Automatic annotation (TrEMBL):
GO biological process: cellular response to starvation
GO CC terms in record: plasma membrane
Bilayer topology: Multi-pass membrane protein
Alphabetized InterPro entries for the sequence: CstA (IPR051605), CstA_N (IPR003706)
Family assignment from sequence similarity: Belongs to the peptide transporter carbon starvation (CstA) (TC 2.A.114) family.
Keyword vocabulary terms for this entry: Cell membrane, Membrane, Transmembrane, Transmembrane helix
Transmembrane feature ranges: 79-97, 125-150, 156-175, 182-203, 223-245, 266-290, 330-349, 377-395, 407-428, 435-453, 465-484
Domain CstA N-terminal, chain residue ranges per copy: 2-141, 154-289, 332-450
Compartments reported by the entry: Cell membrane
Main location: membrane
Protein name per UniProt: Carbon starvation protein A
Lineage per the UniProt record: Bacteria, Pseudomonadati, Bacteroidota, Bacteroidia, Bacteroidales
A Pfam family it matches: CstA
Length: 492
């Protein structure tokens, strides 16, 4: 438990120490925010700061810090390092600057921000990239909760229809009508579940892997995993460390804050909170998988099914199953309810804000004001039509969910690369310490390029060649940046 406790303390200190450094670099002031200046009663309106924090947390979290942390911990204790340092120095910094820059630029969406700093051609690419990513998120988070609900009552097709109707309503209504009312409740449920599990860890004090047990891929020996830690770990654990999807969500809340000075608690703080949730679930799952905790929580009939299935441990006890078993066993009846919220309500609340973000990004690009319901429908109908096509494809293809999710993971982290580079350019123009985002930008560039080169879903080239190419691109990234910086010296 030593590694877990130290990691938890470092995450909290990261908010108070490094979060303050990042805030001083940006220098929030007392200017009027878009929520006050533009207020349209639909997307731009002032909400209480605590409510904005809870909505931001749930927007960026969903099941990401749960499922990603569980799967990432298959690699072993190295996941602790990525969650802690990735969250403090990359993810929270990424979320803070993307939210604050959006606030400074009238609540501008991510493609607009990227275009402002990286050029109009990049903006156009990012517009398509962002909308495609957000539609994928919405589709994934229609199908996955529908499968779970279909196992409880009725069938998944009915639940797909019900969830999709909810998405349409939540996307079109003013943000305070549904999202502002129910999101804080679901966010509290996720936080309560994580806190209860952390208490359970301290009470049970189970055997857990520590950093000094080694940073190699522990799953390779126990589960026969073939993926290398680099880059697979850094794609698998996204929402608990850094996620490009967050930069599409931060502008939603940048339109609802009354003061820029609430940026650190809302944007940086929500990401640190998500890191804590990921840390807890990573620790719980390490006991579940590495020290046979699954034998403690799984009922006898399920253990028999596992023995007869011929599947490996991680194939049979996937992330949603781990959540349900642990919550039911450690937290009792209340845990069952919380588990249901965690694997059903949380993804649904990520899906509706994904569609909402897509609507606002397209409306901003086409210069269509969103005060009128008719104009919101004009933008939203094509988005939902494309989503329905994705849904039918997913239903018809048995492995459709896994295929979309794998490409979503890479696309998600690639989006963070463009966001970090855009922030770095902003910091250079403003003559501010750009190193805080340059290092994460280069690192994530190398991660994403390496993954697409060596992954079987990418080019599938030999690992050694992929590493060599990625290393060369890392050097070129630094060279390109400093050449550009020299040419643009003094430009603002």
């Amino acid at each position: 438990m030593v590694t877990f406790i130290v990691s938890l303390v470092v995450l909290v200190l990261g908010y108070f120490i490094y979060g303050k450094v990042v805030e001083k670099i940006f220098k929030p002031d007392n200017r009027e925010t878009p929520a006050v200046r533009i207020n349209d009663g639909v997307d731009y309106l002032v909400l209480p700061s605590w409510k904005v924090f809870m909505i931001q947390f749930l927007n960026i979290a969903g099941t990401g810090p749960i499922f990603g942390a569980i799967m990432g911990m298959w690699f072993g204790p190295s996941a602790y390092l990525w969650i802690v340092f990735g969250c403090i120095f990359a993810g929270a910094t990424h979320d803070y600057f993307s939210g604050m820059l959006s606030m400074r630029y009238d609540g501008c969406g991510l493609p607009g921000l990227i275009g402002h700093f990286l050029g109009n051609k990049v903006k156009q690419v990012m517009l398509v990239f962002c909308v495609f990513l957000l539609v994928m998120v919405g589709v994934v988070f229609v199908y996955s909760p529908a499968i779970i609900l279909g196992d409880i009552w009725a069938n998944r097709i009915l639940w797909i229809f019900v969830i999709f109707i909810y998405y349409i309503i939540a996307t079109l209504l003013p943000i305070d009508k549904i999202i502002g009312k129910i999101y804080p409740l679901f966010a509290f449920s996720l936080l309560f579940m994580a806190a209860a599990l952390m208490i359970g860890l301290f009470i049970k004090h189970p055997q857990l892997p520590e950093l000094w047990d080694g940073l190699d891929n522990l799953g390779a020996e126990k589960f026969g995993m073939t993926n290398s830690i680099f880059p697979a770990l850094f794609i698998t654990i996204a929402c608990g460390a850094i996620s490009g999807f967050h930069a599409t969500q931060s502008p939603l809340m940048s339109r609802c804050l009354k003061s820029e000075k609430m940026g650190r608690p809302v944007f940086y703080g929500a990401m640190i909170t998500e890191g804590v949730v990921a840390l807890i679930w990573a620790t719980v799952s390490s006991y579940f998988f590495f020290y046979d905790g699954w034998k403690e929580v799984a009922p006898a009939d399920l253990l028999i099914q596992y023995e007869q299935s011929g599947k490996t441990l991680i194939q049979f006890f996937d992330a949603p199953t781990v959540v349900k078993l642990v919550c039911n066993s450690w937290l009792g009846a209340l845990g069952g309810v919380l588990a249901l919220l965690g694997v059903v309500a949380a993804p649904i609340t990520s899906g509706d804000t994904a569609f909402r973000s897509a609507r606002l990004i397209i409306a901003e690009f086409l210069h269509i004001k969103q005060r009128s319901m008719i104009k919101r429908l004009v933008v939203a109908i094509p988005i939902f039509a494309a989503s329905i096509a994705f849904l039918f494809w997913q239903i018809e293809n048995p492995d459709g969910f896994n295929t979309i999710w794998q490409y979503f993971g890479w696309s998600n982290q690639t989006l963070s690369v463009f966001t970090l580079w855009a922030i770095t350019v902003y910091l250079v123009h403003e003559k501010k310490p750009y190193i805080v985002t340059l290092i994460p930008a280069v690192f994530m560039t190398v991660v994403c390029i390496t993954f697409i080169l060596v992954s079987k879903n990418g080019f599938g080239i030999p690992m050694e060649i992929g590493y060599g190419i990625a290393g060369a691109i890392m050097v070129l990234s630094f060279v390109w940046f400093f050449i550009w910086k020299t040419k643009n010296k003094g430009v603002r």
